[in-house]
Amino acid sequence: MGGRAELSVALADTSRFAEVSFYYRPAGTTDWKLIGTDDNPRYRVYQDVTGLPKGTLLEYRIVAKDLSGRYSATSSWAFVGDPTGSSGPSAISYDPPEKQPGSVSVPGSFNASLGCPADWLPDCDKAQLKLDSEDQIWKASFNLPAGDYDYKAALNGGWDENYGVGGARNGSNINVKPTGGTVGFYYDHATHWVTSSAQGPILTVVGSFQSELGCAADWKPDCMRPWLQDLDGDGTYTWASVQIPKGGYEFKVAHGLSLDETYPADNVTLTVPSDGMQVRIDYVLATHQVSVSVTQPSAKPDLSVARAVLVNDGMIAYPANAVPAGTPASSFTWRLHASAKGGLGLDAEAIVGGEVFSLSRDGKGLPAGVRLAHPELADAIALRVDPAVVGRMKRLLAGQVAVAMYDDQGRLVDATGLKRA
Ligand SMILES: [Ca+2]
Ligand SMILES: [Ca+2]
User: Which residue of 7, 169, 279, 394 shows the fewest CB atoms closer than 10 Å?
Assistant: First the structure.
């Protein structure tokens, strides 16, 4: 990241959140500095890192406040470097943004050959792209003479907001060397990536989840909602979304917006265990290797609040709303993490530091007596502490204690501190 970096966070269910604050600190320092707060999706702020030396490691903390006033947080980091479009502390969102610009054009050194009065004219009628309402991608096809050209994407007919290499605002010019004939240009306002069919194949994911994303049909290669993009130019093309509903799907990667060339030979199967999961598909153009990951989006686990309650030394009540809707509690496991010196930490995947103890879920829920004494815990998930650990509970609670929830793949789904009832 560099220049004026865009920081954004993808939240699974934006209707639940009121505002998201972004903090940073150079690694090795202690005070978090507020960058900004955004109160509407997609949540993002801009950070000017031009004053920081290149190579500085920055840590980020992103705190989301939901409509009931509860906080959740996630952490990430980035190095200060040259501006790129893939900067930012969390996975960039490829889901269509709420608002599109008024117009998008491709000013460049080929504009005169399109019939514009001169080159590099963002307001030239003949260099405008058109928003495709099906996939929310800006598109146009131009007949370009063979040549060596530079161009950018410009918004709203002027230079105030323009994007170059890697989707970077005010970034470098993009080079294109068409060999003559029709060239398709494409711009995605979610990522600000602009490219053309003369710079490499346009790559889309075709599959049985395209209709769920808003395409007119499944297996439709020219619906670019799942558009694989290479913002950092490393040859791996990526697309990610939190909008594929729970279910089982199949997909392939298609070249050139057609089904004539697809990879791999057989369909890839995709299982989304619950709504709101982040599905990420990566495609290595050189080797045609396809990989897919399904993870719980960030901004849930938080050790700075105690939402788990120790009702007695042998039983913990865990908030039922941590279990995603439509997923049985039996598909999750819980563990107790403890550190006498308070060294528990949270990274993207797990709780780190301290000792770990397994907890067993009691399907019958909390005992009637506990529910009577604590009606606010009536729906809570009941977790039994290993009998060998019950006697140590008093001492463990003198240090830092957290309860973490993992899915059936062992991925951290939620975490919170533990307090006595
Ligand atoms: Ca479908
Ligand atoms: Ca890439």
Answer: 394
